[in-house]
């Protein structure tokens, strides 16, 4: 006699797949809304992160905050510096340390990004009622803040 094999769908697996599909959709929509601003989602994230520092951070500080390898930050900063969004400045306390600061162009881009992000959020959340959005916000907070990291 063969052991009974359940044919019931893996509910958690299906939910995980839906979350992955949603993540891809969010990325596509965000990218679409950022195109007129002339910036990628990764560059947008770096600019937004940079704007929250009280003084220009080091590249290593940005990498740690963004949870990426330093080389990834270097590539992003190179592109943003080329477009005039940021500039590298020497640290006043140590000439060997380079800090990254927003330029006026970068601050203007941040203002444009706010509108693009609102547009992307409106598009993705359009099918939800106000009540559903509240429920979703609570669930996402639980998922983002409530689970321990497992090295992923």
Fold and architecture overview:
Helix 1 crosses helix 5, helix 2 (41-51) packs across helix 5 and helix 3 (59-66) packs across helix 4 (70-82). This protein has a two-stranded antiparallel sheet with strand order 1-2. The chain has helices at 11-34, 41-51, 59-66, 70-82, 104-125, 130-146, and strands at 86-90, 98-102. With 152 residues, the chain is mainly alpha-helical. The chain contains six helices and two strands; from the N terminus they run H-H-H-H-E-E-H-H. The protein is globular and about 60 Å long. 14% of the residues are buried. The longest helix is centred in the first third of the chain and has 24 residues, at 11-34.
Question: Helical amount among residues, as a percent range?
Answer: 55-70%
Number of strands: 2
Count of DSSP-assigned helices: 6
Task: Estimate the strand proportion.
Answer: 5-15%
Largest sheet data: 2 strands, antiparallel
Order of helices and strands: HHHHEEHH
Low-confidence stretches: none
- Average per-residue pLDDT, rounded, comes to 89
* Spatial order of the strands forming the largest sheet: 1-2
Distance between the termini: 41 Å
